[in-house]
Amino acid sequence: MTGTGLRRQLLRMGRAASWTAEAGRIRFFALLLATTVATLAVMGFVLASASFDGRADRSAARGARVVEPGSSARAELLWKATIASLNDRQYDVVYIEPLVENAPLPPGVGHWPKPGEVLLSPALKKADGVVLGEYGRPVGTIGAEGLEAPGEYFAYVRPAAARLDAESMAKVSGFGVPWTPALGEHLYNFGPSEFRWAYLALVGLPAALFVVIAARVGAAARDRRTAVLAALGASTGARAWFAVGEAGVPVAIGAVPAGIVAGLVPVIDVPFPMVDFVLYAPDARAALAGLAVALGGVPMTVLALVVLLQPPHRTDGRSTRPVAAGRRREWMLWLFPVAFFGTVRGTDLAPYDLRLPVLAAGSVATIALLPGVVGALVSAAGPMMARAGAARGRIGMLVSGRRLASGARPVARLVASVVIAIGLAAQGQIAISLFTDMSDRVEAVENHLGTSVLRVSTTMSTASADVAGFERALGREVHALAVLRDSEKGRAEVVAGCAVWRSLDVPCSGSPTALHSSHRGLDQAVSLERSVGLRLFARTGSVSDAVRKTEDPALMVVAADGRQLSPARVHQAANSNLAMATRVEVFAMTGSLGGSGEGIAAQQWLQLLSLAGVLVIVVVAGIGSIAQFVRTGRELGPISVLAGSRRVYYSVSWWSLLAPTVFAVFMAVLVSWFVTSPLMASGSSRLSALSTVGAAGLLCAAVMAWWGARMASSAASVWRPRGD
């Protein structure tokens, strides 16, 4: 037979064996799903990189070219960027004013708005809670080419003539800079480096584990068959072609769903669940070459791993019997202490810019190597368990001890999914707690205060501020009080007229009077300021003079009856009467209590990536467990004949499934505690997260043991003696 004919025959034999071998159907679907997941994971990484590049390019295209003093460039417009927030999400509001008739327009803007008009991004225009007149009269939307992403919140405002503050604005010659400006959605989102490391740890590692587990499903019977082929004279190449034939069909089918995704994302914008992000189709089109490489390269890599993960064939004249796992060189186990101590202590020694990569890479390596360590320790304990079972007459302990002692790798495959799931879930939950701890405290304060007392501030000029007009726009029984802070003395004076003080049940006095929580409408603000070591004093005076003469003034807006106020309405009134750009927030002398946009975005992305990774791990655990249970049922079939009872399966399951998995859960929680120590999370947050995932792991172990006993018993019921 020619070489080509032999290869075809080997491929046909492999395809036939893929369905009829032990756990063949399980492995078929496992390889199919693993190929799909791995290809989608790599494509996701490619699309993420393309999205970051596309956003950087569009951000640079709308960056303002500021005319520096002494420059020969001609100033054609005024430009000022400010920050606003909506529903704990930060975004940019840019004020623009043309200086010449044909001043250049920002990308995505088709015409110059008139004074007092505003252009909003489509996402901001549709967002819940936004008042369209908050910055002016909306007259249109910003085109996609002027936004970093379709879901970005962004606004261009042309200030009214009365509020135009030319001195606070930069002179600009046009748009388009060669760098990424400090403006736009990327400032309030996950950074490229942080996202890539989180993606590799939370999605890449589970996908890689899926491929390895799928390739080794039904490994015991397949390793015996490979040894027989080698004994019959099959070369390494022949065995490789046989393995390719066995795995080729499921791998090829698994690439089809990924191909469908690769064909859709360049055509339509794809919104992501749980995060405020939309994948822009032009960014996906820019990544077509990378998507094509991933679509072809990942299935080929899976096939290569299927071939490489076969046991080696000895050619030194010794026995052709498959090498027991216990006698193989477990040199990779020595990498675990290096990765573990490098992760725990290496972050302190690494330069600041490299601490995140060192922590992420070390965590991934430590978690990936831990199943092998658990398998080796459990396998080493197998002989002792067998001797104890023999001495006490416990069939389950005896059988389990001997099965566990036969090799560490089956145990490692059994517990790998549980260990990695616990490690990834713990990493994700503890990382999320870094952001939720602060946001929870902020939310608690805001829920306590509500919006009954608001703070209005600005860094713009207030020389022409119309405080009386501002109060009229607020409505009846709503007052604006000037706040003059003296940080050195730990006090702040609140300035208002006698009529305002009387409506708030505060005595009108010529000298400063201490405010108390008993004063109507001010109780919550006074209590908050006392909690941060500040005291408030009431002083009778002109609010207008205080605002106009004070640098960076602040106003306290309060209703006499203590009702909840509308921040959007207050913001609209402030922009119209006080300054070109103002900020409204829950009253806090210590600064903004608004959420951190970047922290909230990071929290949302970590939740999404953690969920995706854990879902993959759940599938891996199910497939690996089913394959292990099928093997266990077939191997233990004769025991039911000898023991005369199927209760032995529950005993064997207890010692060979539950005990190793519980030990693996304990090790995973212990290692995760130390690996996450470099994170700046509180001990209570880490303990809470690890307790939760540990309890879930123990529940999973119990379910696996019960399920394994049931499947082994079912498989044994149809067992018949065979010549295998």
What characteristics describe this protein?
724 residues, alpha+beta, seven-stranded mixed beta sheet, 21 helices, 57% helix, elongated
Please indicate the percent range of residues in DSSP E strands (runs of 2 or more).
Answer: 5-15%
Report the C-alpha radius of gyration, rounded.
34 Å
Structural class: alpha+beta
Looking at the chains present, what oligomeric state does this protein adopt? single chain
The total of beta strands comes to: 16
Give the overall shape: elongated
Helix % is 55-70%
- The neighbouring-strand order within the major sheet is 1-7-2-3-6-4-5
Q: List the uncertain runs.
A: 322-329, 589-595
C-alpha termini separation = 30 Å
Average pLDDT, to the nearest integer? 80
Q: Please tally the helical runs, counting DSSP H or I stretches of 4 or more residues.
A: 21
Q: State the major sheet.
A: 7 strands, mixed
Question: How would you summarize the topology of this molecule?
Answer:
Elements: H1 3-20, H2 24-61, E1 64-66, E2 77-86, E3 89-98, E4 117-120, H3 122-126, E5 137-141, E6 154-158, E7 170-175, H4 192-215, H5 219-231, H6 236-264, E8 270-271, E9 278-279, H7 281-286, H8 288-308, H9 335-349, H10 355-392, H11 395-405, H12 409-449, E10 453-457, H13 467-474, E11 478-486, E12 491-496, H14 498-503, E13 513-514, H15 523-531, E14 535-540, H16 543-549, E15 554-559, H17 567-577, E16 583-586, H18 597-635, H19 637-643, H20 647-675, H21 683-717
Parallel strand pairs: 3-6, 4-5, 12-14
Antiparallel strand pairs: 1-7, 2-3, 2-7, 4-6, 8-9, 10-15, 10-16, 11-12, 11-15, 13-14
Helix pairs in contact: 1-2, 1-6, 2-4, 2-6, 2-8, 2-18, 4-10, 4-12, 4-18, 6-8, 9-10, 10-11, 10-12, 10-20, 11-20, 12-18, 12-20, 12-21, 13-17, 18-21, 20-21
